[in-house]
Amino acid sequence: MKSAYEIYFGGPDRSPGYLRDLLAQQIAAVPAGGSIDWVAYYFRDLELARALIQAQNRGVKVTVCLAGKPRVSDANDEVIAILSAPEGLGDKLRTVTLTGIPSPPRRAWRPQLHEKLYCFSHPKPVAFIGSFNPSGNRLEKRSDIVREIGDQDQGHNMLIGCYDPLLIEQLVKHARQLHQKSPGLLYRFSANANHAIKGTDTTIYFLPSMRPHPVIQFLNEIGKNARIRIAASHIRTKRAVDVIVGLTKRGAIVEIIAEQTLRRVTPSVEQRLLSAGIRFKRNCDNLPMHLKFILVEAGDQKWSIFGSFNWTKPSFWLNHEIIAISSNSHIFNAFSDRWSILANEKAITPVTPERFSLIPV
């Protein structure tokens, strides 16, 4: 029987732009009368932006929610200009810039729309969630931005296509509610924020909310003899490290593969994890690792945890995130295979980056 999920990974063993090409193919496959609902944090791919406009022009119902001022504040400006132009999407584009909260000097405590959600009605209804942002261009004029946020068209990344009707309906609804009304600081108190979507074998949560953090709550219930594997692009907050170290104190075996950038996973975090007996290594193939997943094995039970979330204070408390917890064996096996590739990077056969080139500013 065909799985209700399809898992796609970007990386050095895939052609450059593999995941953005997947989205391009999905856009092109939606006919007049169909729908595309899109939520993204970084969106800089001009070809994809124009493809969305072409889809609307042929009669597809398109909505796009996009972070107006991400961490690299001007990263999305060119796509926003194209989509908001008279010949663009018009009011079908909503840029979301959320109000910050009082913060100490030199710190910006501003929530971000950090979700990655791409829903398509045809050729078969599907909702993609994961870690991938379409944040590059075939001919790149802003090499400074690519260096800062990482080349997500060539680095380690993922999209999980959900075909479970129970999940698709609610994910599309979520995307359209974001489009209809930008969330405010009180969004975490709303029914939408505190409602989990339950599929056949997968539950999806949204942040921020008033419920306990689903990843922390889940891991805090894991005990002795469990095996936990964590792929993480960002680990910075003490709370996250406490949770991970707590697993080892309860007798679990914990392994971590982290992004190589010291800003995203700090040396102090690395040292504390190593001191706790955790098997820690950094991805070292000189490509960004934007993957965010956890594999949990306890007895004969296996779970996958994945989505847009990071192990950071903004992600835990402020950002709008999507988190999935699944007992689906197809998802687990796909992530486990990917873990093996990350853990033994010499087995990767690099693909020559022929599709993208950087144009000096």
Summarize the structure in words:
The chain is α/β, with parallel strands linked by helices. Helices cover 29% and strands 24% of the residues. The chain has ten helices and 17 strands. An eight-stranded mixed β-sheet has the order 9-10-16-15-14-11-12-13, with helices on both faces. Strands 1-8-6-5-2-3-4 form a seven-stranded mixed β-sheet, with helices on both faces. A two-stranded parallel sheet has the order 7-17. β9 (197-198) and β10 form a beta hairpin. The protein is globular. Mean pLDDT is 90; it is low at 346-361. InterPro entries: PLD-like_dom, PLD_domain. It is an enzyme of class 3 (hydrolase). Pfam families: PLDc_2.
Shape: globular
SS-based class = alpha/beta
Order of helices and strands: EHEHEHEEEEHEHEEHEHEHEEEHEHE
Number of strands: 17
CATH topology of the largest domain: Endonuclease, Chain A
The parts where pLDDT drops under 50 for at least 5 residues are: 346-361
Helix content: 25-40%
What is the CATH C-level name of the largest domain?
Alpha Beta
What is the radius of gyration? 20 Å
How many strands, what sense, and barrel or not for the largest sheet?
8 strands, mixed
**How many domains?**
2
Task: Output the number of helix runs.
Answer: 10
Beta-strand percentage range: 15-25%
Strand order of the largest sheet: 9-10-16-15-14-11-12-13
End-to-end distance:
51 Å
For this structure, what is the CATH homologous superfamily of the largest domain? Endonuclease Chain A
Organism: Nitrosomonas communis
Keywords: Hydrolase, Lipid degradation, Lipid metabolism
GO molecular function: phospholipase D activity; RNA endonuclease activity producing 5'-phosphomonoesters, hydrolytic mechanism
EC number: 3.1.4.4
